[in-house]
Specification:
Blueprint (H helix, E strand, L loop, with lengths): L1 H27 L3 E5 L2 E5 L1 H33 L4 H26 L3 H15 L2 H14 L3 H11 L6 H15 L2 H14 L4 H13 L3 H13 L5 H21 L3 H14 L4 H13 L3 H14 L3 H9 L6 H12 L6 H13 L3 H8 L2 H4 L3 H13 L4 H12 L5 E5 L5 E2 L15 E5 L5 H20 L19 H4 L2 H15 L10 H11 L1
Length: 524
């Protein structure tokens, strides 16, 4: 505001000064004589001033024209001049316009247009660090992988663009499935940018997929240092990696190193069930059964699991079923209402021949949460108590189509694993397995429909009619026909095998419910 006012006042003062000067010259009178050789000119003061201004203007024009001629000569000679700078600015403007149009075309999915604009931008700009990336991405969009790779390789020659070039080739190798080359490129990218989050994620995923647990732990530490991973997540994943490393060392015969890694995994994440099981086994090697039991109890208090029960049973493998049932009581009391605790209590009671306690232990679990395991246990209880075959048959028929219960299920793709693994076998997700209800496979219904007549026939065959009672023939033959009853006995064994296959967690604790029930019937 003040500056604008100052300029207005200055303009008024200058106009007033010029007006005053012109008036003074006009009023002064006299003349100005200019002699050029034999010529003499007489001018009034005002005319002399006009001539002076014209002479100055002509001199200025002559100076500018001479400068233009000199610049033209230098331009033609290849020197940098105002003319060359004008053309350079014009080319740069066109180049950046082409680059902007190429980026817009790339974002719009127009790969061919983007490639044409990238070539035009390269022609005008001569800046490969700006245009090569656009050309590479446009070539990828058009499916020209070789051309894209050639552009990415050119980026490797400049320190400023080397990382981008490595990243581009890395993505191509991942898309091609060449994980070996991709791992080397990821390591190179990590060396260039050790704090880049995307590179750290890619490198960690490849190392986990290749079972390079030591390298994965180093990458995980780098992620924590780069502050791209919360500390609690780092601790959990480090425990998983330590557990995987422990398994690898134990398989290689490095018992001591494997023991150290297993105990470290359990220390980092006490609620990681496989780590607790392996740590208990390692304590068992040193006959440190108290520490083994402590580890199992701590994990059981978070989430009861059949593997923990099996590890707890291995602490004293030669004890009687009654002694085992008594020893398990403190463990069962940690989470008495959990489904796993109730199933385990029932299985231990069945093994001890106490079917009443088994029924009390399982309670109404078969009704509130019916699974293959709970329904099979109920069938074993009914058989052990001497229930009619039609009752046992009902439980087994329900078990055929019942859910499998909790399994190691990937939370990312819902793939079911028979045992815990650090990396999902289906989607390669790291630490995605949780003990969750497994989705029922599509073939379960067909298998149930095919096996139900066999089970019915097997149980009917065991219920033979008494000699003194006359056999009244039915109007239509049913499942009691001889041709259908012949394959019944092996069919029951197949069903028992299927149950054991589905519920591996019962092995070593209870066993086959049929065997237990038969043994109990013989005792009674």
């Amino acid at each position: 505001m003040i500056w604008s006012l100052f300029k207005i006042v200055l303009f008024v003062v200058l106009v007033a000064a010029v007006t005053y000067g012109a008036g003074y010259v006009i009023e002064a009178g006299g003349e100005v004589r200019i002699a050029l050789g034999a010529m003499e000119f007489s001018l009034t003061p005002l005319a002399a001033m006009v001539v002076l201004v014209l002479i100055l203007l002509a001199g200025w024009l002559l100076f500018r024209i001479s400068g233009l001629l000199v610049a033209t000569f230098r331009f033609l000679n290849g020197d940098e001049t105002a003319i060359s700078r004008y053309f350079d600015r014009n080319r740069e403007r066109r180049g950046f316009e082409a680059l902007a149009d190429g980026l817009m075309a790339l974002a719009s999915g127009e790969g061919k247009v983007a490639m044409a604009k990238a070539a035009r931008a390269e022609k005008y700009l001569g800046r490969p660090d700006l245009t090569l990336l656009l050309s590479a991405q446009a070539a990828e969009m058009n499916g020209e992988t070789q051309a894209a790779q050639a552009h990415y390789k050119k980026l490797l020659g400049d320190d400023r663009t080397r990382f981008v070039g490595v990243q581009g080739i890395l993505k191509q190798k991942l898309a091609e499935g060449d994980t070996d080359t991709a791992l080397k490129l990821a390591e190179k990218a990590f060396a260039l940018r050790p704090r880049h989050e995307g590179t750290l994620d890619t490198l960690f995923g490849l190392q986990s997929e290749k079972a390079d647990w030591k390298g994965a732990r180093e990458t995980l530490a780098a992620k924590l240092k780069a502050k791209v991973l919360p500390r609690d997540v780092h601790t959990r994943r480090d425990a998983v990696l330590a557990l995987a490393e422990a398994r690898e060392k134990l398989e290689a015969g490095e018992i001591e190193n494997g023991k150290v890694a297993a105990l470290q995994a359990n220390r980092l994440s006490p609620d990681l069930i496989p780590a607790a099981v392996l740590a208990a086994e390692m304590y068992g090697l040193d006959s440190s059964y108290r520490n083994a039991a402590k580890v199992i109890r701590k994990a059981w208090s978070v989430q009861p699991h059949p593997d923990l029960a099996a590890a707890f049973a291995e602490i004293s493998p030669d004890e009687t079923p009654e002694a085992r049932l008594a020893r398990f009581q403190p463990l069962l009391k940690l989470k008495p209402e959990d489904a796993e605790s109730r199933l385990l209590a029932a299985e231990l009671a069945i093994a001890a021949g106490d079917f009443g306690a088994a029924r009390d232990g399982i309670g109404n679990l078969a009704e509130t949460d019916p699974t293959i395991r709970s329904l099979t246990v109920m069938a074993a209880i009914e058989r052990g108590e001497g229930a009619p075959d039609n009752v046992v048959r009902g439980w087994l028929a329900r078990a055929l189509s019942a859910p499998r219960g909790n399994q190691w299920t990937c939370t990312k793709c819902r793939h079911v694993h028979s045992t815990w693994v650090p990396v999902c076998e289906n989607c390669a997700g790291f630490d995605t397995l949780s003990w969750l209800p497994a989705p029922a496979p599509a073939e379960n219904a067909q298998a149930a429909a095919a096996m139900l007549p066999l089970i019915v026939g097997a149980l009917t065959e065991q219920k033979a009619p008494e000699p003194e009672e006359p056999v009244v023939p039915e109007p239509e033959p049913e499942v009691e026909d001889v041709p259908e009853a012949e394959p019944a006995k092996p069919a029951r064994k197949d069903f028992a095998g299927r149950m054991a296959e589905t519920s591996d967690d019962m092995d070593g604790i209870v066993g086959d419910p049929y065997v237990i029930a038969d043994h109990a019937v013989k005792q009674t």
